Amino acid sequence: MALAERLSNLGTETAFAVSLAAADWASQGNRVYPFHLGDINLPTPANIAEAMNVAIAEGKTGYCPAAGIMPLREALAHDVGRRRGLRYEPANVVVQPGGKPVIGKFVQTVMNPGEAVLYPNPGYPIYESMIEYYGGQSLAYRYVQTDTGFAIDLEHLRGLIAAAGGRVRAIIYNNLQNPLGCESTPQEMQSIADIAIEHDLVVLADEAYFEMRYSGDSHSIAALPGMQERTVILYTFSKKFAMTGWRLGAAVAPLPIAESIAKLNTNDESCTTHFVQAAGVEGITGPADGAKAILDELRRRRDAAWDELAQIDGLVCPKPDATFYVFPKVTALMARMGFTDVSEFATAALRHTGVSFCTRKHFGRPQPGEQDHFVRFAYSGLSVADIQAGLAGLRGWTDS
Protein backbone atom coordinates (compact mmCIF):
# COMPACT_ATOMS: atom_id res chain seq x y z
CA MET A 1 0.00 0.00 0.00
CA ALA A 2 1.44 3.37 -1.02
CA LEU A 3 0.96 6.19 1.47
CA ALA A 4 1.12 9.92 0.87
CA GLU A 5 4.68 11.15 0.43
CA ARG A 6 4.10 14.11 2.75
CA LEU A 7 3.88 11.72 5.71
CA SER A 8 7.66 11.42 5.57
CA ASN A 9 7.82 15.07 6.67
CA LEU A 10 5.67 14.46 9.74
CA GLY A 11 7.55 14.34 13.02
CA THR A 12 6.33 13.49 16.49
CA GLU A 13 6.37 14.81 20.03
CA THR A 14 9.57 13.08 20.98
CA ALA A 15 8.95 13.10 24.73
CA PHE A 16 6.44 10.34 24.06
CA ALA A 17 9.24 8.22 22.57
CA VAL A 18 11.12 8.53 25.86
CA SER A 19 7.93 7.37 27.57
CA LEU A 20 8.15 4.05 25.75
CA ALA A 21 11.63 3.34 27.07
CA ALA A 22 10.59 4.37 30.58
CA ALA A 23 7.47 2.20 30.42
CA ASP A 24 9.51 -0.78 29.23
CA TRP A 25 11.95 -0.36 32.12
CA ALA A 26 9.06 -0.06 34.57
CA SER A 27 7.39 -3.18 33.13
CA GLN A 28 10.45 -5.15 34.20
CA GLY A 29 9.72 -4.27 37.82
CA ASN A 30 11.95 -1.23 38.10
CA ARG A 31 11.03 2.06 39.75
CA VAL A 32 10.85 4.96 37.28
CA TYR A 33 10.83 8.68 38.08
CA PRO A 34 9.15 10.22 34.99
CA PHE A 35 10.86 13.57 34.47
CA HIS A 36 10.50 13.18 30.70
CA LEU A 37 6.88 14.14 30.01
CA GLY A 38 5.39 17.54 30.82
CA ASP A 39 2.07 16.24 32.11
CA ILE A 40 0.59 17.39 35.41
CA ASN A 41 -0.38 14.77 38.00
CA LEU A 42 -2.67 17.18 39.84
CA PRO A 43 -6.47 17.13 39.63
CA THR A 44 -8.37 19.63 37.56
CA PRO A 45 -10.05 22.08 39.99
CA ALA A 46 -13.32 20.62 41.27
CA ASN A 47 -15.48 23.54 40.14
CA ILE A 48 -14.36 22.98 36.54
CA ALA A 49 -15.13 19.27 36.66
CA GLU A 50 -18.52 20.00 38.18
CA ALA A 51 -19.30 22.52 35.44
CA MET A 52 -18.66 19.76 32.90
CA ASN A 53 -21.00 17.39 34.74
CA VAL A 54 -23.73 20.03 34.80
CA ALA A 55 -23.27 20.71 31.09
CA ILE A 56 -23.61 17.00 30.30
CA ALA A 57 -26.72 16.76 32.47
CA GLU A 58 -28.15 19.73 30.57
CA GLY A 59 -27.66 17.91 27.29
CA LYS A 60 -24.72 19.90 25.93
CA THR A 61 -23.41 16.84 24.12
CA GLY A 62 -24.12 17.67 20.49
CA TYR A 63 -22.62 19.89 17.83
CA CYS A 64 -21.89 23.53 18.59
CA PRO A 65 -20.39 26.39 16.54
CA ALA A 66 -17.09 25.59 14.84
CA ALA A 67 -15.41 28.67 16.31
CA GLY A 68 -16.57 27.82 19.82
CA ILE A 69 -19.53 28.61 22.06
CA MET A 70 -20.08 32.31 22.58
CA PRO A 71 -19.75 32.31 26.41
CA LEU A 72 -16.24 30.85 26.13
CA ARG A 73 -15.19 33.16 23.29
CA GLU A 74 -16.42 36.15 25.30
CA ALA A 75 -14.63 34.98 28.44
CA LEU A 76 -11.36 34.37 26.59
CA ALA A 77 -11.49 37.66 24.69
CA HIS A 78 -11.86 39.52 27.96
CA ASP A 79 -9.34 37.48 29.97
CA VAL A 80 -6.59 37.24 27.35
CA GLY A 81 -6.95 40.92 26.52
CA ARG A 82 -7.02 42.09 30.13
CA ARG A 83 -3.89 40.19 31.08
CA ARG A 84 -1.99 41.64 28.12
CA GLY A 85 -3.34 45.19 28.16
CA LEU A 86 -5.18 44.63 24.88
CA ARG A 87 -8.74 44.60 23.65
CA TYR A 88 -10.11 41.55 21.83
CA GLU A 89 -13.61 40.74 20.63
CA PRO A 90 -15.18 37.27 20.63
CA ALA A 91 -14.72 37.23 16.85
CA ASN A 92 -10.95 37.18 17.43
CA VAL A 93 -11.20 33.93 19.44
CA VAL A 94 -11.39 30.49 17.82
CA VAL A 95 -11.69 27.61 20.27
CA GLN A 96 -9.59 24.49 19.62
CA PRO A 97 -9.38 20.92 20.97
CA GLY A 98 -6.16 21.84 22.78
CA GLY A 99 -3.42 24.35 22.19
CA LYS A 100 -1.47 22.14 19.77
CA PRO A 101 -3.96 22.42 16.85
CA VAL A 102 -3.28 26.16 16.75
CA ILE A 103 0.23 25.42 15.45
CA GLY A 104 -0.86 23.44 12.41
CA LYS A 105 -3.78 25.72 11.60
CA PHE A 106 -1.59 28.79 11.87
CA VAL A 107 0.88 27.28 9.41
CA GLN A 108 -1.89 26.28 6.99
CA THR A 109 -3.40 29.76 7.17
CA VAL A 110 -0.33 31.95 6.63
CA MET A 111 2.19 29.79 4.71
CA ASN A 112 2.10 28.57 1.13
CA PRO A 113 4.14 25.51 0.09
CA GLY A 114 7.72 26.56 -0.55
CA GLU A 115 7.58 29.54 1.81
CA ALA A 116 9.62 29.62 5.00
CA VAL A 117 8.73 29.88 8.68
CA LEU A 118 11.18 30.68 11.47
CA TYR A 119 10.92 28.61 14.64
CA PRO A 120 12.96 28.16 17.84
CA ASN A 121 15.48 25.37 18.20
CA PRO A 122 15.75 23.90 20.78
CA GLY A 123 11.98 24.17 20.86
CA TYR A 124 8.70 22.32 20.84
CA PRO A 125 9.17 19.70 18.08
CA ILE A 126 5.69 20.10 16.60
CA TYR A 127 6.67 23.49 15.13
CA GLU A 128 9.20 21.89 12.81
CA SER A 129 6.88 18.99 12.07
CA MET A 130 3.93 21.12 10.98
CA ILE A 131 5.99 23.49 8.82
CA GLU A 132 7.53 20.64 6.88
CA TYR A 133 4.35 18.56 6.68
CA TYR A 134 2.54 21.41 4.93
CA GLY A 135 5.35 21.86 2.44
CA GLY A 136 7.20 24.78 3.97
CA GLN A 137 10.86 25.43 4.64
CA SER A 138 11.61 25.26 8.34
CA LEU A 139 14.22 27.78 9.44
CA ALA A 140 15.50 27.05 12.94
CA TYR A 141 16.76 30.04 14.89
CA ARG A 142 18.99 29.24 17.80
CA TYR A 143 19.75 30.30 21.37
CA VAL A 144 22.98 31.26 23.06
CA GLN A 145 23.88 30.67 26.69
CA THR A 146 23.89 33.59 29.11
CA ASP A 147 24.72 33.97 32.80
CA THR A 148 21.04 33.52 33.66
CA GLY A 149 19.94 31.02 31.04
CA PHE A 150 19.46 31.50 27.30
CA ALA A 151 18.87 34.26 24.77
CA ILE A 152 17.80 34.22 21.13
CA ASP A 153 20.72 34.59 18.73
CA LEU A 154 19.31 37.63 16.94
CA GLU A 155 22.22 37.91 14.53
CA HIS A 156 21.69 34.32 13.42
CA LEU A 157 17.94 34.94 13.05
CA ARG A 158 18.52 37.98 10.84
CA GLY A 159 20.96 35.96 8.77
CA LEU A 160 18.34 33.27 8.16
CA ILE A 161 15.92 35.90 6.85
CA ALA A 162 18.53 37.42 4.57
CA ALA A 163 19.55 34.04 3.16
CA ALA A 164 15.92 33.07 2.48
CA GLY A 165 15.60 35.89 -0.03
CA GLY A 166 12.10 37.09 0.77
CA ARG A 167 10.53 33.66 1.26
CA VAL A 168 10.02 34.00 5.04
CA ARG A 169 6.34 34.35 5.83
CA ALA A 170 6.10 33.93 9.58
CA ILE A 171 7.95 33.44 12.84
CA ILE A 172 6.99 31.21 15.76
CA TYR A 173 7.95 32.83 19.05
CA ASN A 174 7.67 30.86 22.28
CA ASN A 175 8.40 33.16 25.18
CA LEU A 176 8.47 31.29 28.53
CA GLN A 177 10.03 28.58 26.46
CA ASN A 178 9.76 24.80 26.39
CA PRO A 179 12.27 23.16 26.87
CA LEU A 180 14.65 25.89 28.01
CA GLY A 181 12.42 27.42 30.69
CA CYS A 182 13.71 30.86 29.66
CA GLU A 183 12.01 34.11 28.72
CA SER A 184 12.95 37.14 26.66
CA THR A 185 14.18 40.37 28.14
CA PRO A 186 12.08 43.39 27.11
CA GLN A 187 14.86 44.32 24.70
CA GLU A 188 14.87 40.89 23.06
CA MET A 189 11.09 40.87 22.67
CA GLN A 190 11.19 44.31 21.09
CA SER A 191 13.87 43.11 18.68
CA ILE A 192 11.67 40.22 17.58
CA ALA A 193 8.79 42.66 17.06
CA ASP A 194 11.02 45.00 15.05
CA ILE A 195 12.14 42.13 12.83
CA ALA A 196 8.54 41.01 12.29
CA ILE A 197 7.45 44.50 11.29
CA GLU A 198 10.49 45.15 9.10
CA HIS A 199 9.99 41.94 7.12
CA ASP A 200 6.17 41.86 7.30
CA LEU A 201 6.09 38.57 9.19
CA VAL A 202 3.06 37.05 10.87
CA VAL A 203 3.83 35.91 14.43
CA LEU A 204 2.60 32.86 16.29
CA ALA A 205 3.07 33.75 19.96
CA ASP A 206 2.97 30.42 21.77
CA GLU A 207 1.93 31.60 25.23
CA ALA A 208 1.07 28.24 26.74
CA TYR A 209 3.03 29.12 29.90
CA PHE A 210 2.01 32.80 30.12
CA GLU A 211 0.43 32.29 33.55
CA MET A 212 2.75 29.52 34.74
CA ARG A 213 5.32 31.71 36.46
CA TYR A 214 6.59 31.91 40.03
CA SER A 215 7.85 35.49 40.16
CA GLY A 216 7.69 38.59 37.99
CA ASP A 217 5.12 39.37 35.31
CA SER A 218 4.54 37.93 31.87
CA HIS A 219 4.41 40.15 28.81
CA SER A 220 3.07 39.44 25.35
CA ILE A 221 4.68 40.45 22.09
CA ALA A 222 1.16 41.17 20.86
CA ALA A 223 1.03 44.16 23.22
CA LEU A 224 3.97 45.94 21.56
CA PRO A 225 3.14 48.73 19.08
CA GLY A 226 2.20 47.42 15.66
CA MET A 227 2.05 43.78 16.78
CA GLN A 228 -1.54 42.94 17.69
CA GLU A 229 -2.64 43.06 14.06
CA ARG A 230 0.06 40.56 13.01
CA THR A 231 0.13 38.22 16.02
CA VAL A 232 -1.77 35.00 16.75
CA ILE A 233 -1.74 34.00 20.42
CA LEU A 234 -1.78 30.30 21.27
CA TYR A 235 -3.81 29.82 24.47
CA THR A 236 -4.25 26.54 26.30
CA PHE A 237 -6.15 25.37 29.38
CA SER A 238 -3.76 22.43 29.84
CA LYS A 239 -1.22 24.08 32.11
CA LYS A 240 -2.99 26.62 34.30
CA PHE A 241 -5.94 24.37 35.08
CA ALA A 242 -4.23 20.93 34.89
CA MET A 243 -6.47 20.02 31.96
CA THR A 244 -3.96 18.29 29.68
CA GLY A 245 -6.31 15.45 28.76
CA TRP A 246 -9.40 17.62 28.37
CA ARG A 247 -8.02 19.05 25.09
CA LEU A 248 -9.12 22.67 25.21
CA GLY A 249 -7.34 25.74 23.84
CA ALA A 250 -7.81 28.66 21.50
CA ALA A 251 -6.29 30.85 18.84
CA VAL A 252 -6.64 34.57 19.57
CA ALA A 253 -5.99 36.21 16.23
CA PRO A 254 -6.57 39.11 13.87
CA LEU A 255 -9.99 38.74 12.27
CA PRO A 256 -8.94 37.45 8.81
CA ILE A 257 -6.80 34.72 10.39
CA ALA A 258 -9.47 33.87 12.97
CA GLU A 259 -12.06 33.41 10.24
CA SER A 260 -9.72 31.12 8.29
CA ILE A 261 -8.90 29.01 11.35
CA ALA A 262 -12.64 28.67 12.09
CA LYS A 263 -13.10 27.32 8.55
CA LEU A 264 -10.35 24.79 9.19
CA ASN A 265 -12.19 23.78 12.37
CA THR A 266 -15.26 22.97 10.28
CA ASN A 267 -13.20 20.76 8.00
CA ASP A 268 -11.05 19.12 10.68
CA GLU A 269 -13.17 18.34 13.73
CA SER A 270 -16.48 20.23 13.28
CA CYS A 271 -16.23 21.67 16.79
CA THR A 272 -14.57 21.33 20.16
CA THR A 273 -16.58 19.23 22.63
CA HIS A 274 -19.45 21.37 23.94
CA PHE A 275 -19.40 20.25 27.57
CA VAL A 276 -15.61 20.68 27.73
CA GLN A 277 -16.04 24.26 26.53
CA ALA A 278 -18.63 24.82 29.28
CA ALA A 279 -16.03 23.66 31.79
CA GLY A 280 -13.58 26.13 30.25
CA VAL A 281 -15.99 28.99 30.89
CA GLU A 282 -16.00 28.06 34.56
CA GLY A 283 -12.20 27.94 34.59
CA ILE A 284 -11.94 31.47 33.20
CA THR A 285 -14.80 33.10 35.11
CA GLY A 286 -15.03 31.02 38.30
CA PRO A 287 -12.97 31.08 41.51
CA ALA A 288 -9.21 31.20 41.00
CA ASP A 289 -8.35 29.11 44.06
CA GLY A 290 -7.79 25.89 42.14
CA ALA A 291 -5.41 27.42 39.60
CA LYS A 292 -3.49 29.16 42.39
CA ALA A 293 -3.10 25.88 44.27
CA ILE A 294 -1.72 24.22 41.13
CA LEU A 295 0.82 26.99 40.63
CA ASP A 296 1.83 26.94 44.30
CA GLU A 297 2.47 23.21 44.13
CA LEU A 298 4.46 23.56 40.92
CA ARG A 299 6.59 26.22 42.62
CA ARG A 300 7.38 23.77 45.43
CA ARG A 301 8.32 21.17 42.85
CA ARG A 302 10.48 23.64 40.93
CA ASP A 303 12.35 24.51 44.12
CA ALA A 304 12.82 20.84 45.06
CA ALA A 305 14.10 19.92 41.59
CA TRP A 306 16.49 22.83 41.37
CA ASP A 307 17.81 22.31 44.91
CA GLU A 308 18.68 18.70 44.12
CA LEU A 309 20.12 19.33 40.66
CA ALA A 310 22.28 22.21 41.89
CA GLN A 311 24.14 19.75 44.13
CA ILE A 312 25.31 17.56 41.22
CA ASP A 313 28.95 18.23 40.38
CA GLY A 314 29.39 19.21 36.74
CA LEU A 315 25.73 20.03 36.11
CA VAL A 316 24.91 23.71 35.44
CA CYS A 317 21.26 24.58 35.97
CA PRO A 318 19.69 28.08 35.80
CA LYS A 319 16.65 28.46 38.05
CA PRO A 320 13.66 29.34 35.85
CA ASP A 321 10.98 31.84 36.86
CA ALA A 322 8.33 30.17 34.70
CA THR A 323 7.17 26.96 32.96
CA PHE A 324 7.73 23.61 34.68
CA TYR A 325 11.04 22.64 33.10
CA VAL A 326 14.73 22.92 33.89
CA PHE A 327 17.29 22.53 31.12
CA PRO A 328 20.70 21.96 32.70
CA LYS A 329 24.00 21.73 30.87
CA VAL A 330 25.60 18.35 31.54
CA THR A 331 28.76 18.65 29.42
CA ALA A 332 31.19 18.58 32.36
CA LEU A 333 29.17 15.93 34.19
CA MET A 334 29.22 13.62 31.17
CA ALA A 335 32.94 14.15 30.68
CA ARG A 336 33.60 13.36 34.33
CA MET A 337 31.63 10.12 34.00
CA GLY A 338 33.16 9.12 30.66
CA PHE A 339 30.13 9.71 28.42
CA THR A 340 30.39 11.37 25.00
CA ASP A 341 26.83 10.71 23.75
CA VAL A 342 23.95 12.36 25.62
CA SER A 343 21.50 9.62 24.59
CA GLU A 344 23.76 6.98 26.11
CA PHE A 345 24.00 9.09 29.26
CA ALA A 346 20.19 9.28 29.49
CA THR A 347 19.83 5.53 28.99
CA ALA A 348 22.42 4.80 31.64
CA ALA A 349 20.71 7.17 34.08
CA LEU A 350 17.42 5.34 33.58
CA ARG A 351 19.00 1.93 34.11
CA HIS A 352 21.02 2.93 37.18
CA THR A 353 18.61 5.31 38.93
CA GLY A 354 15.15 5.06 37.33
CA VAL A 355 15.30 8.77 36.47
CA SER A 356 13.88 9.32 32.97
CA PHE A 357 14.44 12.59 31.13
CA CYS A 358 14.63 14.06 27.65
CA THR A 359 17.78 15.29 25.98
CA ARG A 360 18.42 18.30 23.78
CA LYS A 361 18.05 15.96 20.77
CA HIS A 362 14.33 15.63 21.49
CA PHE A 363 13.69 19.32 20.75
CA GLY A 364 14.71 19.80 17.14
CA ARG A 365 17.67 18.76 15.05
CA PRO A 366 20.93 19.84 16.72
CA GLN A 367 22.44 22.76 14.84
CA PRO A 368 25.93 22.97 13.36
CA GLY A 369 28.53 23.99 15.90
CA GLU A 370 26.68 22.77 18.99
CA GLN A 371 29.19 21.26 21.39
CA ASP A 372 27.59 21.37 24.82
CA HIS A 373 25.15 18.73 26.04
CA PHE A 374 21.82 19.53 27.69
CA VAL A 375 18.92 17.54 29.16
CA ARG A 376 15.41 18.53 30.18
CA PHE A 377 13.69 17.66 33.44
CA ALA A 378 9.91 18.21 33.64
CA TYR A 379 8.90 18.29 37.30
CA SER A 380 5.15 18.74 36.84
CA GLY A 381 4.30 15.05 37.06
CA LEU A 382 6.04 14.09 40.30
CA SER A 383 5.44 14.89 43.95
CA VAL A 384 8.06 16.79 45.91
CA ALA A 385 8.98 13.57 47.72
CA ASP A 386 9.49 11.69 44.45
CA ILE A 387 11.48 14.58 42.96
CA GLN A 388 13.78 14.54 45.94
CA ALA A 389 14.12 10.75 45.99
CA GLY A 390 14.71 10.42 42.26
CA LEU A 391 17.24 13.23 41.96
CA ALA A 392 19.05 12.19 45.15
CA GLY A 393 19.49 8.80 43.53
CA LEU A 394 20.75 10.46 40.36
CA ARG A 395 23.26 12.46 42.39
CA GLY A 396 24.41 9.35 44.18
CA TRP A 397 25.02 7.59 40.86
CA THR A 398 26.93 10.51 39.35
CA ASP A 399 29.12 10.71 42.47
CA SER A 400 29.90 6.99 42.58
Describe the structure concisely:
By secondary structure, the protein is α/β, with parallel strands linked by helices. The protein is built from 13 helices and 14 strands.
How would you explain this protein's 3D organization?
The chain is an alpha/beta fold and 400 residues long. It folds into two domains: 5-43 and 290-399, Aspartate Aminotransferase, domain 1 (Alpha-Beta Complex); 47-285, Type I PLP-dependent aspartate aminotransferase-like (Major domain) (Aspartate Aminotransferase, domain 2). Helices cover 42% and strands 14% of the residues. The chain has 13 helices and 14 strands. Strands 2-10-9-8-7-3-4 form a seven-stranded mixed β-sheet, with helices on both faces. A three-stranded antiparallel β-sheet has the order 11-14-13, with helices on one face. The longest helix is centred in the last third of the chain and has 21 residues, at 289-309. The radius of gyration is 21 Å and the shape is globular.
Cα-atom Rg, whole angstroms?
21 Å
Helix content: 40-55%
The CATH architecture term of the largest domain is: 3-Layer(aba) Sandwich
| Percent of residues in beta strands | 5-15%
CATH topology of the largest domain: Aspartate Aminotransferase, domain 2
Unreliable residue runs = none
Q: How many distinct folded domains? A: 2
